[in-house]
Amino acid sequence: MTSERSVPDSANPDVVLVGGGIMSATLAQLLQVVAPEWSVAVFESGSAVAGESSGPWNNAGTGHAALCELNYTPAGPDGRVDPTKAITINEQFQVSRQFWSHLVRAGMTGSPKEFISPVPHLSFVTGEDGRSYMRNRHAALAAQPLFEGLEYTDSPSEMADWLPLMMEGRDPEQVVAATRSAAGTDVNFGALTRLMLDDAATRGVNVHVNQRVDALEKESDGRWKVTVRDTVTGDRVTMRTRFVFVGAGGGALPLLQKAGIPEIRGFGGFPVSGMFLRSRSPELVGRHQAKVYGQAAVGAPPMSVPHLDLRLIDGEYSVLFGPYAGFSPKFLKAGSLFDLPRSVKPGNLGSMLGVARTELALTKYLIGELVQSRAARHRTLQGFVPTAEQADWDMVTAGQRVQVIKQDPNTNKGVLQFGTELIVGGDGSIAGLLGASPGASTAVSAMLTLLQRCFPQHVDAWRPLLQTAIPSYGHSLNDEPALLAQVRADTMQTLELNG
């Protein structure tokens, strides 16, 4: 028999964070910096935090800084490469590194080696067109202070030094080119999330697992009524709070729809699953000490960019290659097969149908991925690792990604967006995050934006505290090389990234 009760008013939290992933963990720690007197409660539906998109096997862990991801540096019709998006993402990752450094210095996380390690980031292309693009990309990025030290080569012998595993057995006549940055990292966002929430719990934040937020209802006094269900016993509890953040990954869209805020109208979600080939062979790992991103096939979406990544997870090194996309209507790995159909509402039906009509290339790509044989997947791997043997690789299922579908204000048609979107209710009492990459890597910037949009009346008072934790707050590192040098030296030392 289940029961339902209400939390006494004196025990109601000031802030409710839905989801136990990197976004909620980041916001919980930012609130510890600027408003430690506020009471905060975190509700995670799974049996442990960081079980979905923040889990280390559920994401690439690249520490997205646009050092190697070619989809952040598009080329125009004249071949010139636009570095704008890459600069923005790199700036955002530098903000994350500064905040993590602050947490390490303040004793709010364990050793940085538990969640971040230095790994070179490389971009790799083949063919004359690829080499021309890579030269232009290098010229565009190397001129930016944030990308200082980015190296270029189209010499097969030099690339054999950089990427021995990828160059062995390759056709010597094949045109190849690459860039390399020694400033790259591998990040275990699952470990980082757990460290942050464990610390938050010691400072008074109530972190609950096996607790699913089923409903959000705005009350006449401006507070939110939050209904939480125990996923083990079925018991329900209701509480009231001044502010709700929905950081539930793929579960964010349906919950924001239940909240009934007009700002969510027109938004939909398109779920995509992914798989990676993984090798734990010490010989292969020893010969691939890098993260390498290539180019997506013609007509394929940005999510399909192939990459061969060195990973360090729970003290063990491995190499992952992928992604191989799949389709499931679930919005979370532990979600329901009815997640997608239930998310279709009168307010977003037009957007969803519009994307169904315009994204035929994506549909074709997903169907092709779904019907691929193991041999076909292995041939794709051999495009990166010519000597790869099937016996050295096993398949890992990654996390669900729900790509944002939104309404274009100019055309009123639905468009598919391969990024993240912060949704803020009109009075700032509720916010949620939709979308995927670069996601976790830019969590601190996303949550700083949330603080500015939801608590504008506090920002001036909070600014000195935020500048202490994040020295570049309010500045552009790419425009201030001296500050960039200072920040870079500090974070490398604090996060132990000097080798």
UniProtKB/TrEMBL annotation:
Keyword Oxidoreductase, does the record have it?
A: yes
> Biological process (GO) annotations?
tricarboxylic acid cycle
Ordered alphabetically, the record's keywords are: FAD, Flavoprotein, Oxidoreductase, Tricarboxylic acid cycle
Q: Which cofactor does it need?
A: FAD
Q: Which Gene3D superfamilies match?
A: D-Amino Acid Oxidase, subunit A, domain 2, FAD/NAD(P)-binding domain
Catalysed reaction equations from the record? (S)-malate + a quinone = a quinol + oxaloacetate
Q: What class of enzyme is it?
A: oxidoreductase
Q: What is its EC number?
A: 1.1.5.4
The lineage's top-level taxon is Bacteria
Task: Kindly tell me the pathway this chain contributes to.
Answer: Carbohydrate metabolism; tricarboxylic acid cycle; oxaloacetate from (S)-malate (quinone route): step 1/1
Molecular function in Gene Ontology: (S)-2-hydroxyglutarate dehydrogenase activity; L-malate dehydrogenase (quinone) activity
The similarity comment for this entry is:
Belongs to the MQO family.
Q: Which HAMAP family match?
A: MQO (MF_00212)
- Its recorded name reads Probable malate:quinone oxidoreductase
Q: Which organism is it from?
A: Blastococcus xanthinilyticus
* Gene behind this protein: mqo
